[in-house]
Amino acid sequence: MSRDPSHYKIRSNKKHSRSHTGPYVRTAARSGGHVTAPVLTNSTITGDVHITHNAPGVFGHCTQTQTSDISSVIDKYKELICSEYQYVSEYNSLPGEQVLLSERFTQPLIIQSHRDQKEREEDIRCSSRSSDQSVRLNDLFDPDNRRISPRAVILQGNSGNGKSFTVQKIMKDWASGDLYKQRFKIVFHLKCKEINHKEINRRSGEKSLVEILSYSCSLTSDQISQVLQETPEKMLFIVDGFDELRLTQDDHPKSPHTALNKRAPPEVTLCALLRGRILPESFLLVTTRSTATDTLSKLLKTPQRFTEIMGFSSKGVEKYFQGFFRNEEFFRKAYDYVKANETLITACSIPVICWIICTVMRERFSDGSDLTSGLETTTSIYADFVSTLLEHHCPDSIQDVLALLRSLGQLAEKGMLEQQVLLDEEMVNETVADPADSPFLSKFLFKRRVHLETMFSFMHLSFQEFFTALYYVSLDGNEFEEKFTNVCLKGQFAAVVKFLFGLMNEEVRHTLKRKHGVCVHPNTQNILKDWLFQRRDSLETLHHLFELHEESFVKEVLNVKSEVSVKSTPLRIIDCWALLYCGQCCQSMKQLSLYGCDLTSEKLAMILPVLHKFEELELNPVSYSDMVAVVNAVLRGRTLSSQRVNIMARLAIPKFLGRFMTFSICDTSVILSVSEDLSSVRIETDRTGGLVCIDTSRFSMREFTVTFPQSSIITFDWTNVFQEIQAWTEMNDGNGDMPIFSLQSVPGLKMMELSVWSLTECHVTQMISLSENCPSLRELRITCLHVPEDGLRLLQKSHTRPDCELTIERIKCSFLHGRSHHRKISLNGGVFSMEELRPPFIPL
């Protein structure tokens, strides 16, 4: 070694290392020489070790090289994260089958506040959620209004609410440079479920943080050690599923545990990280179910921030369906179907429910099956959801699952009887053995004066109703009959009853028995069916049949209950689905009456395919265009040999009185009589006063009937006819041509009957034109109250086809004297005749 050395200094960076008692080691090499791997014997150095190279011209080279190596390691780590986290495996994925995260992830609704008791109750009962108050993922670590940034963020959420998907999205976006780019240099993902795994706990059962991380990421232990010594304030640890960590009171001691390489039971090591004993400057994001939030909060370092993942907002549900199907037609069919069902669209706030519904419907679409013919009932979706959570979050023993389901059902029933959705801790602990382990329960803390009160709830009121029904069907026949008669039929249990019918479905029963050992007593189904035969509410009957979803029984019930009637009650879309399904199951039914129930074009379009199956129809569409759709649909149906249909549309006609606008009301009724041979269509127009009294005698046509072969009636489009009627009724005086011009194009028209107030010269011209331009017309009958002189003169000099007879009956009544004058006018070819008829006596 030379006398003019370059110096390598090896020193400890521990707080006391600069004192005279601290370790300070110095080695030297002559110019041109070097020191290779200095070995220190009989010495213990704690703290960080720095090597300083003081050779001329190369100062700091080692530090730069080390930083460059770590950046290279992190970049490679990001590449691997992007590759691994861009795919997800679903519950029903086959080996090697994956889908893109981008096709499944939808931003969930995340709130940054604790809900009070009233807000919780509203959440549990509500049918939709707004996304206005949602926190973005990029804002989770932002300073609050006091400019304090959290070191630890709790992300609470129910099972199936999307916590793990959200974590995967954070990892993917960070590695891609789309999230936390400036905030975090390195992000580690720790899964508590894996920390509990035997693979991590084998050998000594004790692991350091470095070793735990090596199991969960693609880096080696040496690389992790390097990275962890770099700027811990730029590190984020995501701990996913804290509630799955098997902790005891001894697992999170208060004694310090600060060394990265110190070994301890994995749970203890993780608790040291959560407490901030290890890498206190780092940041934490911890997901957990609500049942473990209070434990986590006591354990976690500060400052903390509480957030809650609520699942999907209403807009989020729609976006999820769009991303899942990636086909506009399938998306629209599936989403519209679910949106119509208030219970299902509410449950869709839970992402797993969304996935189940979309998966089932995609299967129906791929099979080419009709949407309503599958098991897309509310009950079947809930049963699939419960099975999914039981399979992935509960014990394997069927006895344990049966005990859990029974206790949850008993708890749900207690809440239903007391009309409570928030259940007190004492009642829950008395009923459920370990409520914290149940994936179906949520736990909440509420302030009560100077104390905290613990309460539980099901994910939503509908799940409380479902578990009540599931408990009832597991009882023996006598117990079930007692519960059904004395509880279900006397309280607010309508939804429970609907679930009971859904649980009677053969496939649902088979699935529950095969997977979870839930058996239904044979007499239970008979009790429900017998009760259904006695029901008078036909609309609710359709819903029960839809949930049961067994075609043979639907036919059996509707053969007995031959009438379906909805009057003065708004018809919902879900009602139309039930009506459509039941109609598809039957060959023919007797009567359907839908009057005053807001029968819009959308609802009408849903039930049109089965309208022709009813022998008698009474419908009240809200517009003329809807009336046309009904007429066309009914007349084109070939199922029945005979049918009678009464359709009435109401049109409000504006009328101005000075500066004020009022409305008169015009009711147009269509009576269809369809038979195997000749069919007739009778159309009545009745203009009556609304806010303004209208003199109806001023309006010419009251009704007309046309008769022609069924083969013609099936193919004719009635659109132009009703457009003429609408235009005529909207006229202020109702005079002018009668709305029958389009009838000239009716193929095979045999006979027409009209009823008018006054047969004017204009109307006679129309009649003569109709007889000349419609060669199939054989008879034209007109009934009127008055024939003016001009009309009579025109008739006397007019001609019709020899094979078409025009008959006019004029009836003029005198109510004062109880008499009427009845005359008959005939015109056949050029022969005109008029005779006096003797009418029956009209009593006073």
Give a verbal description of the structure.
There is one protein chain. The protein is an alpha/beta fold. 40% of the residues lie in helices and 23% in strands. The protein contains 31 helices and 26 strands. A 12-stranded mixed β-sheet has the order 15-16-17-18-19-20-21-22-23-24-25-26. Strands 6-11-7-10-9-8 form a 6-stranded mixed β-sheet, with helices on both faces. It is elongated and about 120 Å long. It starts with 5 loop residues before the first strand and ends in a 7-residue tail after the last strand. Mean pLDDT is 79; it is low at 1-22, 28-34, 51-62, 652-665, 687-699 and 813-818.
Task: Give me the secondary-structure topology.
Elements: E1 6-12, E2 24-29, E3 49-53, H1 61-85, E4 87-88, E5 99-100, H2 101-104, E6 109-111, H3 117-125, E7 152-156, H4 163-176, E8 186-191, H5 192-195, H6 198-201, H7 209-216, H8 221-228, E9 235-240, H9 266-275, E10 283-288, H10 293-299, E11 304-311, H11 314-325, H12 328-339, H13 342-347, H14 351-367, H15 378-393, H16 398-417, E12 423-424, H17 425-431, E13 441-448, E14 451-458, H18 461-473, H19 477-488, H20 494-503, H21 506-516, H22 522-533, H23 538-548, H24 551-560, E15 563-567, H25 573-585, E16 589-599, H26 601-611, E17 614-621, H27 624-636, E18 643-657, E19 660-674, E20 678-688, E21 701-709, H28 710-715, H29 719-729, E22 751-758, H30 761-773, E23 779-786, H31 789-796, E24 805-814, E25 819-828, E26 831-837
Parallel strand pairs: 7-10, 7-11, 8-9, 9-10, 15-16, 16-17, 17-18, 22-23, 23-24
Antiparallel strand pairs: 1-2, 1-3, 4-5, 6-11, 12-14, 13-14, 18-19, 19-20, 20-21, 21-22, 24-25, 25-26
Helix pairs in contact: 1-4, 11-12, 11-14, 14-15, 15-20, 15-21, 16-18, 18-20, 20-23, 23-25, 25-26, 26-27, 27-29, 30-31
